[in-house]
Amino acid sequence: MQSRVLVIDSSAAGIAGDMLVAAAIDLGANQKATVDAMLSAKEHLRGCSRLEISVKNVVKHGFKAKHVSVEALETVQERRADEMISALQDTLSSLSLSKEAKNFAAKSLKTLADAEGRLHDEKASKVHLHEAGSIDTLVDILGVAYALDDLGIFANTKVFATPIAVGGGTFSFSHGRVPNPVPAVLEIAKQHK
């Protein structure tokens, strides 16, 4: 089978899970099935009373694209990594995905938990994920894994990425005012250079 190439160009505007899901749907991944997979996270993570996902066609700087929006109402403000990992595993078990897609999803969340654990000098599974403990994290991981699997990316595609535009400035969140990119992103970049 001939190998394909996928180039993820995040040099202009960075990259986020919802952006990657939208791009994969724009490439031809099944939109309804991808959204359904994302919505299934609600059944496996406590404290989410509402989860809505919309996909819209947009035009940005003259180019057509897809835009994915995730709206959630959560009664839980933060979760530990072990709860998120368990919810992801339960959700993955309920989905028809390739072994490679499931491994990709699990590794994505583990990478985040490991980085947070190193930053807080805690065991990765016990670290509180604060904002990253939102259902949005699971939804993004599931959407990317499902859409890329639907496109056959895990089977016969070489994936390349451009250097990431990380932005600048500062913003406030649970740990106070921090520079952009946030410490967890820098930790992940340091571990995967």
What is the number of strand segments?
6
- Percent strand: 15-25%
**Terminal residue distance:** 30 Å
Q: Give the low-confidence spans.
A: none
Largest sheet: 2 strands, parallel
Helical content class: 40-55%
For the biggest β-sheet, the strand order reads 1-4
Average pLDDT, all residues = 91
Mind telling me the C-alpha Rg? 17 Å
Any overview of this molecule?
This protein has helices at 17-27, 31-39, 81-94, 99-120, 135-150, 153-156, 183-191; strands spanning 4-8, 48-60, 63-74, 157-161, 170-173, 176-179. With 193 residues, it is α+β, with helices and mostly antiparallel strands. The strands form three sheets. Strands 1-4 form a two-stranded parallel ribbon. A two-stranded antiparallel sheet has the order 2-3. It has a two-stranded antiparallel ribbon with strand order 5-6. A hairpin with a 2-residue loop joins strand 2 and strand 3 (63-74). It is globular and about 45 Å long.
Question: In a nutshell, what does this entry contain?
Answer:
This protein has 193 residues and is α+β, with helices and mostly antiparallel strands.
From the structure above, extract its key features.
193 residues; alpha+beta; two-stranded parallel sheet; two-stranded antiparallel sheet; 7 helices; 6 strands; globular
Give me the secondary-structure topology.
Layout: E1 4-8, H1 17-27, H2 31-39, E2 48-60, E3 63-74, H3 81-94, H4 99-120, H5 135-150, H6 153-156, E4 157-161, E5 170-173, E6 176-179, H7 183-191
Parallel strand pairs: 1-4
Antiparallel strand pairs: 2-3, 5-6
Helix pairs in contact: 1-5, 2-5, 3-4, 4-5, 4-7
